[in-house]
Design a protein that fits this description.
By secondary structure, this protein is an alpha/beta fold. It is built from 15 helices and 21 strands. α1 packs parallel to α15 and α13 packs across α14. The two termini are 33 Å apart. The model has no long low-confidence stretch (mean pLDDT 97). Bound molecules: flavin-adenine dinucleotide. The site of flavin-adenine dinucleotide has 41 residues, from α1, β2, α2, β8 and β17.
């Protein structure tokens, strides 16, 4: 086992969270080393695949912090501590300005306020994965180069495995490099390994009985190493049950034209989703991220169809940025079309009488403005429920796409990891998708992966620099 030189800060993971922390720390004169398990120069991670929209709760990240804080509290149903909500609400804009000072360009790519701050160049408006030379890729290269320019180090092909702890303080990391274990001593360690979505065992434990039936809607590099090593060291975790993701055509499991976009969310959230018994099982009105989580929790996440009518298909179905109409059928995804609900049920292999009754019951509730009393209830104030009444009728077999896990190592507003008693663990930090207590809750509140990565990345570095100079 080798010992590597001592560092002021070790960062586990070279995504946007980790590299932001590293560059910010370098700006304060700290000696920084980033351990990245990917060995390729363009190692894959969610930050490279990202759509690049900086937002908070799908609002303009530059909006009034009080408005953003309220949006975080509503989306997460109060699960996020006020100090953490405040940090994201106030520092999202600071992250944008900081990136601009470093030369990052942003674009507004649609009239929606949500799209006011998108990393340039944006992804082209077409289905499928397209990351080379796009905003996330450009940003990672710039940040990686900045770390090195400041005198820091980025070691690729280095997989962190274990934290070195002494008397409750994190004093380093052990990592596997080319078949050898190396120990890195450091005054502080930032875990930024991108979550645990690609760890089937952890996903089975927390999210879905059938992890193999979820589509990895990202790079699939978040294997939960950080969560496991932090837990072993005594860290508390929060909100492991929720993930950020979307409803996808089931063929996305094997067809790369059908992920990460188009998503089925607008169809599923304006119409209904049903299980193998043709029964509704989710509050569709909470939106696609919520529905994807509900699908994942089913005994069989491959048992779901989105059901909608022609008004939905040609309305919300066309309104998304890269909409399901016509991109799902054009990309080879199944779209079942019938002139009656009974015929649609036969085509989809669903019990005919039950689907007819489910749709009738849903339609009556929509017409009477009583979707709250459906079982399960359906919210109508966020996304307008539309009746399924205008032929032709449609069904799409869907699956849940998991992009990143929302829960993780519980942190405070400085990205400090907290122990089982809620006390700061000296020397240990978590940022980005590795962190917990920032998103999720009963409504699966999506706050924003990039905002979370940037704000906690900045704040971890600033706290470490402050501790050093104190
Ligand atoms: C298709 C797609 C679209 C998205 N669009 C948006 C969007 O528009 N807006 C938004 O806010 N969010 C979006 N997101 C989410 C956002 O991109 C992520 O939340 C964010 O990039 C996460 O950054 P991160 O640094 O935490 O993780 P990552 O970027 O995943 O980086 C983690 C890094 O850690 C490395 N690693 C893992 N384990 C170890 C280990 N043991 N040792 C060393 N290294 C390790 C990995 O290889 C990886 O490089 C999108 C994500 C995807 C996939």
């Amino acid at each position: 086992m080798g010992i590597h030189a001592s560092w002021d800060m070790i960062v586990i993971g070279g995504g946007i969270a980790g590299l932001t922390a590293a560059v910010r720390a370098g700006q304060s004169g700290l000696r920084v080393c980033v351990l990245e398990k990917g060995s390729d120069e363009s190692y894959l991670c969610n930050s490279r695949y990202t759509g690049g929209t900086l937002h908070v709760c799908l609002r303009d990240i530059m909006a009034d912090p009080a408005e953003l804080r309220a949006a975080i509290e509503t989306a997460t149903a109060g699960q996020v501590s006020p100090a953490v909500a405040d940090a994201i609400a106030t520092d999202g804009r600071r992250f944008v300005r900081w990136l601009q000072e470093m030369g990052t360009r942003f674009m507004k790519i649609s009239p929606a306020a949500y799209h006011n701050w998108v990393l340039a160049p944006p992804r082209p408006v077409r289905p499928g994965l397209d990351w080379k030379g796009r905003g996330g890729d450009v940003l990672l290269r710039m940040l990686g180069a900045a770390v090195v320019k400041q005198g820091g180090k980025v070691i690729r092909g280095a997989r962190a495995r274990e934290l070195v702890m002494r008397e409750g303080r994190c004093i380093g990391v052990r990592a596997d490099i080319e078949g050898h274990t190396m120990t890195f001593n450091s005054a502080a360690t930032v875990i930024a390994d991108g979550g645990f979505q690609a760890n089937a065992e952890l996903v089975r434990e927390n999210i879905s009985p059938r992890p193999e039936r979820l589509k990895q809607r990202g790079a699939g590099t978040g294997a939960g190493d950080g969560l496991i090593m932090a837990r072993e060291a005594g860290a508390q975790t929060r909100g492991l049950q929720c993930f950020y993701g979307h409803v996808l055509s089931r063929q996305a499991m094997s067809n790369d034209d059908l992920w990460p976009v188009p998503v089925i969310d607008p169809l599923a959230a304006s119409g209904i989703v049903v299980d193998a018994q043709a029964r509704r099982f989710a509050n569709e009105g909470e939106g696609g991220v919520f529905i994807a989580n509900a699908i994942a929790r089913l005994e069989d996440p491959f048992s779901v169809h989105a059901i909608f009518d022609d008004a939905i298909w040609n309305g919300p179905g066309k309104n998304d940025f890269i909409p399901p109409n016509p991109n799902v059928p054009n990309g080879g995804g199944t779209l079942l079309v019938a002139n009656s609900i009974a015929e649609l049920a036969r085509m989809a292999g669903l019990p005919e009488a039950m689907l007819v009754s489910t749709v009738q019951e849903y339609n009556a509730a929509v017409v009477n403005g009583a979707t709250d009393s459906l079982l399960p209830p359906r919210r109508s104030d966020k996304i307008r429920p539309q009746p399924i009444e205008r032929a032709p009728y449609y069904a799409i077999p869907v699956c849940a796409g998991i992009t990143y896990t929302m829960g993780g190592i519980l942190v405070n507003e400085h990205a400090c990891a907290l122990d089982m008693n809620g006390v700061v663990m000296p020397g240990l930090y978590a940022a980005g998708s590795a962190s917990g207590g920032v998103e999720g809750g009963p409504r699966v509140g999506y706050v924003g992966g990039l905002a979370k990565a940037g704000v906690l990345g900045l704040r971890s570095a600033e706290h470490i620099a402050m501790q050093r100079s104190a």
